[in-house]
């Protein structure tokens, strides 16, 4: 069953000329108010998507680099857990063949019993806080687990990830 409001909108809309010679396809345009509302909704959805992560700062380094975590991404499954964190570089990072980037979102897995970390992948962005264009994507999961030092950024991430049930 269709919504009477939707039917009314299409009844009020005008039919545009066919798109291609010999084509029977026609397109109905929506009234300006509805089109504006739809565009505004799409824009707000896009903005909310970028701001969806709730980054909480967990460490600031002497060089100005800062580390953030999105606690909502913590997922524990038995003796392992996964967590996403963000590195906001103090200066744009420049690598040959890659546009400079200012932030990197990292996915990692944590061994909650043995206190180890394994890199799963990352995405680097042109702007701070995981915004702007995607500059580089690395899905090359590490083959080995690495020990976590007490008091390190990784130790803080391990505590957040493994404290989640």
Name the descriptors.
165 residues; alpha+beta; 3 helices; 39% strand; globular
* Average predicted local confidence, pLDDT: 79
Within the CATH hierarchy, at the fold level, what is the topology of the largest domain? Answer: Lipocalin
Distance between the termini: 43 Å
Strand content: 35-45%
* CA radius of gyration: 24 Å
Question: How would you characterize this protein structure?
Answer:
- The protein is 23% helix and 39% strand.
- It contains three helices and eight strands.
- The protein has helices at 4-12, 32-50, 153-162, and strands spanning 56-60, 66-69, 75-77, 80-95, 98-111, 116-127, 131-138, 146-147.
- Strands 1, 2, 3, 4, 5, 6, 7 and 8 form an eight-stranded antiparallel β-sheet that branches.
- Strand 6 and strand 7 (131-138) form a beta hairpin.
């Amino acid at each position: 069953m269709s919504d009477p409001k939707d039917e009314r909108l299409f009844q009020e809309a005008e039919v545009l000329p066919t798109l291609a010679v010999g084509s029977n396809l026609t397109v109905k345009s929506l009234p300006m108010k509805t089109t504006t509302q739809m565009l505004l909704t799409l824009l707000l959805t896009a903005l909310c998507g970028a701001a969806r992560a709730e980054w909480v700062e967990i460490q600031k380094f002497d060089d100005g680099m800062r580390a953030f975590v999105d606690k909502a991404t913590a997922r524990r499954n038995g003796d392992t857990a996964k967590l996403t964190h963000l590195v906001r570089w103090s200066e744009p990072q420049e690598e040959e063949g890659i546009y400079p980037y200012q932030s990197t979102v990292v996915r990692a897995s944590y061994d909650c019993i043995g206190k180890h970390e394994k890199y799963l992948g990352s995405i680097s962005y042109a702007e701070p806080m995981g915004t702007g264009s995607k500059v580089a994507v690395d899905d090359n999961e590490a083959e080995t687990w690495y020990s976590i030092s007490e008091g390190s950024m990784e130790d803080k991430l391990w505590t957040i990830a493994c404290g989640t049930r």
